[in-house]
Amino acid sequence: MVVMKFGGTSLGNASRIRQVAGLIGRRNDCFVVCSAMSGVTNTLVDTAGYWKSGDHEQAGQLISGLRKHFEQTCYELFDDEEATTNAAGIVNDHFANVYNRLRSGYDLNNENWLLALGEIVTSEIIALYLNAINIPVTLLNALDFTVTGSDGEPSVEDMRQRIKALTGEKPAGRFLTQGYICLDHQGNVANLKRGGSDYTATLAGAALQAAIIEIWTDIDGVRNNDPRLVEDTFPIRELSFDEAAELAYFGAKILHPSCVWPASSNRIPIHLKNTMEPEAPGTIIRSGIQRKGITAVAAKEGITVIRIRSDRMLNAYGFLSRIFAIFEKYETPIDVVTTSEVSVSVTVDNDSHIGEIEKELTGLGKVRIESGQAIVCVVGDILEQHQDRAVRILDSLRHFNVKMISYGGSRNNITVVVPHEEIAGILSSLNSFLFGSPLKTNDTWLISQE
Fold first, then answer.
1. How far, in whole angstroms, is CA 380 from its chain's centroid?
2. Coil vs helix vs strand at 215
3. Amino acid 339: pLDDT
4. Rounded mean pLDDT, 381-403
């Protein structure tokens, strides 16, 4: 069994859906995970915002526009009149339900139900199309097998049992379902947050013990740097799971950060492929990669630095735990940590509770907040073979305003925090320094030893 996940851009219009259908048709046994069509979830988020604020007129206008978009896609996609009518009927039935809900009062359960609409309608249209062109597929509802526990996380074993109940002990044939959406432990519609379709795919891959998990997007795999900001980037053909996890977490737009572990823990390769160029090699993520150089550079924007200084830290045990307990209380993950005898600096990418966190931290010491920062992460074989590698990387950044440095916590990365406006310059500088050498081995550039 192969898991195939298609993102919103890959399903962005009728032409691309036809292309995806051709890719699915190549597989006799596959489990297909579909995102919502491109732009749909953003529109639904905006709709929910207007609904919450009481602006039902604006919410209704957005929903009407979305209904027309789906209807137009159906008319462009299907050649058979009966199939077109059936597809348009599916769209109208769903949106009639939306209009009814919009007349009721807003609550979080209704919002989550609304946000699930994009995946549900998209998947139903695609399943109908596949069956209409003689590519038999069974449509499954992700809400029947993706259920989170009280910690908000799905369980691979629970998903395995639920899928078996739907498909049989040894599923065969083609199955199609939705990504992103799930039920919470109380049975309410919920979701796995942005990028959650990748997570659904790798969870399903682990549950099915798939041979491989294919993530189909609009790019030819992972590149060594951000091509939007840096010239002369190149694709990386192989990544280890550790490298992929580091890159995903620290800003590379390749995978949902949570999605690596289900595949990694079950040793299932992930293949990142380009829907528009299906024969391109893409990037394979797997176990057993032996890296002998620097792999890639990634940047994460929207970072806030929080510095806590207190003489009470000196020779005191439990001080750090009290700091971290405050972040835990407000469910705010920390990215980077640096410490000295009397101070701690941390970074967060979620500032929704920054006011409350700052207030509580002032009980422990002096607090300073710096917003508008960014994390730049160099990923690869940092600690092996060349003892001066980290020194030389940092030396290449001597002309930039480096605020924090994290090194040694992982064999796979060295991380710096810099002002947001310096990202492009730093990425370009690192690109020239790390990847400008003529030495190249296995798609990894080695640092020049001159």
1. 21
2. strand
3. 87
4. 77
Give the residue-averaged pLDDT of 56-84: 93
**Annotated domain spans of the chain:** 2-218, 295-445
State the Cα–Cα distance between residues 250 and 417, nearest whole angstrom: 11
DSSP 29: S
b/e 186-204 (16+ beta carbons within 10 angstroms → b): eeebbbbeebbbbbbbbbb
Q: What's the confidence (pLDDT) of residue 444?
A: 41
| 3-state secondary structure labels for all residues of 104-127 | CCCCHHHHHHHHCHHHHHHHHHHH
Smallest CA-to-CA distance from 299 within 435, 429, 423 is with 423
The bridge status of strand 235-236 relative to strand 222-223 is: antiparallel
What single DSSP character describes residue 270?
Answer: E
Q: Are 206 and 372 in contact (CB under 8 A)?
A: no
The residues, ordered by sequence, that sit 6+ positions from 148 with a Cβ below 8 Å of its Cβ are 154, 182, 183, 184, 185, 190
Locate 89 and state its tokens.
Answer: 């009927």
- Mean pLDDT score, 354-361: 95
Q: What is the mean pLDDT of the chain?
A: 89
Residue 6 confidence (pLDDT): 96
Query: Rounded mean pLDDT of 341-346?
Result: 89
Strands (DSSP E) found in 54-195: 138-139, 174-178, 181-183, 189-191
The CA distance from 228 to 41, in Å, is: 24
Architecture of domain 295-445: 2-Layer Sandwich (3.30)
Task: Give which of 170, 182, 155, 172 is closest to 262, Cα–Cα.
Answer: 155
How many other C-beta atoms are found inside a 10 Å radius of the C-beta of residue 54? 11
Neighbours of 109 (CB within 10 A): 13
Task: Considering the domain delimited by 2-218, tell me its CATH architecture.
Answer: 3-Layer(aba) Sandwich (3.40)
User: Amino acid identity of 244?
Assistant: A
Q: Kindly tell me if the per-residue pLDDT of 221 is higher than 90.
A: no
Percent of the chain predicted with pLDDT > 90 = 64
Amino acid at 261: W
Spatial separation of the C-alpha atoms in residues 323 and 344, rounded to whole Å? 9
Per-residue pLDDT tens digits for 187-212: 999 999 877 899 999 999 999 999 99
Highest mean pLDDT among 138-152, 233-247, 422-436: 138-152
Token couple for 275: 């829907």
Backbone angles phi, psi at 422, to 5 degrees: -100, 5
